């Protein structure tokens, strides 16, 4: 394992690669134990490259057999080779030259799942970010783009299907009986988009016609026997393809597009050109094995990877500091795709609330994952300035906040302007490796056209500042002049690395789009007269630390609905009267803002409960919260999916994160008591709702209405169980017994485990017996147990001792270890819990550093916890920090956490 663990790479140090690589030919003799790779690379010096400039290639965990330049074999003294670099001296002529390398790699021993590896009895690759160097020596950086020919040779008995990027050109049988295939990718690409797959697969396919009338072959490959579970994935792929044509005018640039499901995969999925490789969890679905949530996630992930074909593959990143260029933009595109799919076919008013469900879920993820990151030792701008291990920077900030920064540009430009900006981006940069600045420049060109004299100078700061800005507001209503003066203030404290710089420079203000609406005291929407028009909502552009806006013709004293649709990734700092929040929670016509007000109201109740509990005082009056919940329960105009969001308490993690100090055990206590009270006090209504939403016997469909009904019904069941309602356990057991799909059976079982674990041991056994052959379903079986309040460290260890458990399959490790360490708050925050975390980080570190580093991040915010938790977490971090054999990945995380 590598030990040069603390080297920092800086964005400012970028310099172009001195050689141009035009053509790559890779020949693989595939074998699980030892694969031989022959690589032929056509180089020419860049225009500025002085003769004699060394050619530097990266390699990792591979064995070099031979090197040639222009057909001349080099001896070991002709080149420099160490653990991770191969340095060659190109011909002094300055002419183009060809490097031919032969090397070995060892897929079966590769437990990192980066480079070429074995999963089951198949071979897969994963090259982003820097996995290609584990296959062969190469300029492993995204700005070196080339055309690839790939020859795959293998025993057809073991590997009947051989896939790589692009188009299949030739297939033949060799004299020794092996099969050989040649793939050619017509589009230049960086090596991180290379892929190969070999094995025995089911394949389903369909030909679709692009809007310009070209036929394209769409295929989904999965394990033998799983083909029948891939229909939904293929449908989603076709939807994504047509959506990108409709909404973005972007057409598929290949004749063939393949998705392959892998059982062992570090991440969710990967956008390799024309050959996306997916975690099987985001491909396989049928009603009996997949929940509604899984169906939606599959749609989202397939959309995401497909959309990368333009935003990532056609136009890629110049360097790894620019990941948000492709990820933030592609997350935004996926969010819009998913929202459009939810709203498809609905009338305008219903469409808005259907889309809001997706917005709510995305903002929820942002607040749960990204806000804590921005408040901790790993805080970084969406375009980071430095890293030690790039694998650690595929973060919620780069992805989710990155998508918010794109969304703000969409808000500022409008849909038409944004699409014009996208067009300009592709006009300027198609086929190039570019930077976030290049993207903003294209968008800015449209903005400046729309608003002469204005530009994105201030907006750009979103790319260089870390931390979540805080927004304060002040309203002054003058009844005589019927004017409302709204003053907005912004502030963003130094975060993460910024805070550790010796001289903290003041952070200049950001350009923040603030969407607002006005309600009167009865909750009626009031029209806003603004820039010559009358509107329900307007967007104020805040560019200064403090700025005032005056609205005229405001007839009655208004209640402000602020940050509609979550128009910017900020925290509103101004506490407003509970009565205002309650009014917004009942009446705001913006469905996002209405949900947000409900959540804020509930959070304030919970936080007050935590303060009371610590002071050993009585918990605050629950009546106001009950009244809100009652109103949401009775509002028949709401879609079930939206109602489910409205009636869910804020996540426990959000509650913990909002506490000062963070106090997990108190939060668990108060959250649980509040849920129980809402369950018990509204029992009749939950019961009625539960009955009304019973399955009507129609065939399963994952559509938003049917899945919304199931989600709301499961929520009602959970409240009934939490409230210890007399009949609840019987209802849950009955739901499990009669379930006709996984959403119902898993919903019942998970709720029982949370609230009545003594009543479900037999069901757990039954579930295991039924599903032991299906690894994805078994992951859920593990996951609901590992996160149950009765699951102590001893119990999670017992789960890990079962024959079904393995640390080598990331999905299984996540189902047990991550679910325990992330979701089982009460048992994690114990001395044994802290030991368990350290032990598992180290165990994973030895096998799979990428996955280990993700688990390591669970203790990022240790310093903000109450003393007992803080000391326990700090000791566990130190134990990891000083362990032998630490990977660079884990080292970066724990050392940054401890140095904070
Ligand atoms: N390019 C990434 C996959 C990736 C990330 C590979 C990090 C290597 C390192 C892919 O497009 C991606 O973003 N996948 C996400 C899922 C997506 C729906 C947000 C993932 O794998 O989590
Ligand atoms: Zn992505």
Q: How would you summarize what this structure contains?
A:
This protein is α+β, with helices and mostly antiparallel strands. The model has no long low-confidence stretch (mean pLDDT 97). The site of zinc ion has 4 residues, from helix 3.
Reconstruct the topology from this structure.
Blueprint (H helix, E strand, L loop, with lengths): L8 E2 L8 E11 L5 E11 L9 E4 L4 E7 L2 E2 L6 E2 L3 E4 L8 E9 L9 E5 L2 E5 L19 E9 L6 E4 L2 E7 L5 E11 L6 E4 L1 E9 L5 E9 L7 H18 L7 E7 L6 E2 L4 E5 L12 H16 L8 E2 L5 H21 L4 H27 L11 E2 L8 H34 L3 E2 L1 H15 L19 E9 L4 E9 L5 H4 L11 E8 L5 E2 L1 E3 L2 E3 L1 E6 L3 E6 L7 E4 L8 E2 L5 H10 L3 H24 L8 H12 L5 H8 L4 H7 L5 H18 L1 H10 L11 H19 L5 H11 L3 H14 L5 H11 L3 H12 L6 H9 L8 H14 L1 H4 L2 H17 L1 H8 L10 H15 L6 H12 L1
Parallel strand pairs: 2-12, 18-19, 19-21, 22-24, 25-34
Antiparallel strand pairs: 1-23, 2-3, 3-9, 4-8, 5-6, 5-9, 7-8, 10-11, 11-16, 12-15, 13-16, 14-15, 17-18, 20-21, 25-26, 26-32, 27-28, 27-31, 27-33, 29-30
Helix pairs in contact: 1-2, 2-3, 3-4, 3-5, 4-5, 4-9, 5-6, 8-9, 9-13, 11-15, 13-15, 14-15, 15-17, 16-17, 17-19, 18-19, 19-21, 23-24, 23-25, 24-26, 25-26
The structure holds ligand BES and zinc ion (ZN).
